[in-house]
Specification:
This protein has 279 residues and is α/β, with parallel strands linked by helices. Helix content is 43%, strand content 11%. Pfam families: Amidohydro_2.
């Protein structure tokens, strides 16, 4: 079966070290045992993707410079996409606090660098997804027909961030204000499980993955909804290297999905969002 991984970051030595030492995730990495993650050279990582049937992988950037002082990691996204353009699809990380500079950055990322979407993180930006500073970004993405990938779950022990920033009800409001905008909520908005499912159900333009929470309490709600009412709205994502790709694939293999639903979730829904089916 062909697979698209909608949230994948190559576990190169630079990436592993950057995550472990970041201002946002240093404490969280200790809490989840991230130090045990093994780094690999990029060619080995791509060979592993091929071996597991992952045809394409979306790499999302992150820019939280205003709130955490760390430079954006978009440079690595561009490097990976240039190195393996047939394997990796880049979404550029955008900091909403940079105002019009962020809008101009979207245009540059798409028109000059070949990115296929943008990525935002309300939890780390310390403002909800429906806050006014995001609206110029959504407007530009709607104009350019760019999907917006929104990280919507609160990782542990991140300084300065509160759970409310990751409430899917904020995305629901954005979806109503921008019905032309394609929105993908990452991590299923956990722990707001029912709210995430309903945001996808009632908004034609909202999708989600529930990476990192496949075996968490209430995951059965995700699985039931994915099997029935939102089977066209869920995309597979591993959240590698926070979660090992193999573990994420094993979790999905254990879900009681029909062959049709499995094809949709593992490949077809993502292909439609990314426009790959038109190629």
């Amino acid at each position: 079966m062909k697979i698209i991984d909608f949230r994948f970051r190559p576990n190169t030595p630079e990436i592993i070290n950057g995550i472990k030492n970041s201002a946002m995730f240093k404490a969280a990495c200790k809490a989840i045992g991230f130090d045990a993650r093994q780094a690999q050279p990029l060619d080995e990582i791509v060979a592993d993707l091929d071996r597991r049937g992952v045809e394409r992988a979306v790499i999302t950037g992150r820019d939280c410079e205003t709130t955490y002082g760390s430079p954006a990691n978009n440079g690595s996204v561009l490097e990976f996409c240039k190195a393996y353009p047939e394997k990796f699809i880049g979404f550029w990380g955008i900091d909403p606090h940079k105002k019009m500079a962020a809008v101009h950055e979207i245009v540059r990322a798409v028109e000059e660098l070949g990115m296929k979407g943008i990525a935002i993180d309300p939890y780390l930006a310390h403002i909800p997804a429906c806050e006014a500073r995001y609206y110029p970004l959504y407007t530009k993405c709607a104009e350019l027909n760019l999907p917006v990938f929104v990280t919507m779950a609160p990782p542990p022990q991140v300084p300065g961030a509160i759970m409310d920033y990751a409430d899917p009800r904020h995305v629901d409001q954005v979806a109503r204000d921008f019905p032309e905008l394609t929105i993908i909520m990452s991590h299923g908005g956990y722990p707001y499980v029912n709210e995430s499912v309903y945001a996808c159900l009632r908004n034609a333009n909202v999708y989600m993955d529930f990476s990192e929470y496949e075996r968490a309490p209430m995951a059965d709600v995700f699985v039931q909804a994915m099997s029935t009412i939102i089977q066209d709205k869920v995309v597979f994502a591993s959240a590698h290297p926070f979660i090992e790709l193999e573990d994420a694939l094993d979790a999905y293999a254990s879900f009681p999905l029909s062959d049709e639903v499995r094809r949709k979730v593992m490949y077809e829904n993502a292909s439609r969002i990314l426009g790959l089916h038109r190629n």
